Amino acid sequence: MVSNRCKMAAKEALKKLGLHFIVVDLGEVEILENISAEQRDLLKSELSSTGLELMDDKKAILIEKIKNAVVEMVHHTSDGNKVIFSEFLSKKLERDYASLAKLFSEVQGTTIEQFIIAHKIERIKELIIYDELNITEIAWKMNYSSVAHLSNQFKKVTGLSPSHFKQLKDKRRSPIEEIG
What is the pTM of this model? Predict the structure, then answer.
């Protein structure tokens, strides 16, 4: 789950099946009851009908937690505090970053860093479209060391400078779920 809509869909599926939850968060659900195999299958089916999936594989669950942590950090944090993503992920997931990075690369076929960059670029596009911040403020908000660094990375990923992107009438963005 990477959005509030996903959380709402998961809550509705749980309610529909009469299951009581303690927490429904990005990528995680904690249910009060012990559920039977039949209830698990029903939940899996109900989630699937909304485009969500119930994960059993520990590696897949950890990958999903990594993705959700990146989404949280990039899309849902509003301050410009300098954050070192490797430290953030290690602390949040209580795992060694090197092992997280190795697993992510093996399973996803890309690095955590590339996944983070893809999400940062989508967030930058969003901020440019909103037109509330100038590029210097966006660079600060997104933890770039300089406007030049942001511009270079943006151009490398999109093929456009931020100012050229701003001038486009048809600004192409990707849903969070499809990034990376």
Answer: 0.70
